Give the backbone structure.
Amino acid sequence: MKTLIVDAQGALAFAEVPAPQCGPYQALVKTVSCGICNGTDMKLIHGQFKGYDYAHDYPMMLGHEAVGRVVSVGEKVCGYKEGDYVLLPFTDPAGGFHSAWGAYSEYGVVNDVKALVRDGLAPNSALFPECAWAQTVLPPEIDPVDAAMIITLREVLSSIKTFGIQANQSVALFGCGPVGTTFIKFMSLLGVHPIIAFDIDEEKMAVARENGADYAFNSKTEDVCAVVREICPEGVDYVLDAVGMLSLINQGMELIKNRGKICCYGISPKCQMELDWSKAPYNWNLCFQQFPSKQEEGEAHNQILAWLRAGAIRLKDFISDYVAFSDVIEAFDKVQRREIALKCIVRYE
């Protein structure tokens, strides 16, 4: 099968590798779609994702936001059947390549959590990986191509819960790309108020307002601290970094109220900085949530479906581009040139 790889120089290419074999608790799926992740995928391409290094882990297979159609099932499977569309298939290392989840492959595997629980297997073991909790079957009314977006939506919703953000609390959010816009939409639905959004792109700021931001400002031209303090004189409950800039941690210190929290979701290229809390209140919190739990992501699934069925959200509102799998390398070039406004979905069929 064909898969997308990146080498130690950051060059993307297609490679032929053996298709995966499914175990007794797994199903083999044919990939239907996969979302391009502006965060994880790009950091892996540039060798900036913590835990991976050029010397040992490259070349590697990329992708982690896929949807696949079940084509065969293992002997113990009870939760999948042929023809089901399933979220979050992964592909193990193959053909001499390491795997950073490997979902930009023509085939992948999913793990049947129903069968694993039925037979009493230990969670987070070799046969029961954590991703099984989030490898869920799509209902028939959901378009399986657009459904790749659900993976990001679940990650964001589970992270809002992890950060502890609640109704009637104030948030200053930085970065109004696909992830930041999703945070804004969901926080608005959950009654978070006021939501103060910052970006340097006027179009993204307009999208932020459309999705529920009470205020949207250009962080290059506005005095960030002044506008936040005008809206929330005591400071905000939360500063949320949805883009991955270390400087936002120190900048956030003078924006939060007493016992406020700086929340880092975006992945920064570097993992070291000088922390300066001289302008912070005496009591404050710093929280990193950069690798959402797949079990918590799975627990967010039903709320996302409920919002979709109620019309509170539409998947297409988060998607700006579609490309064929054969054109995925060019699509990554467009992402790097900032020519893709929201989520780009790769089609396989």
Q: What stands out?
A: The CA atoms of residues 1 and 16 lie 5 Å apart. Residues 148-163 form the longest helix (16 residues). The mean pLDDT is 96. The domain at 156-288 is CATH 3.40.50.720 (Rossmann fold).
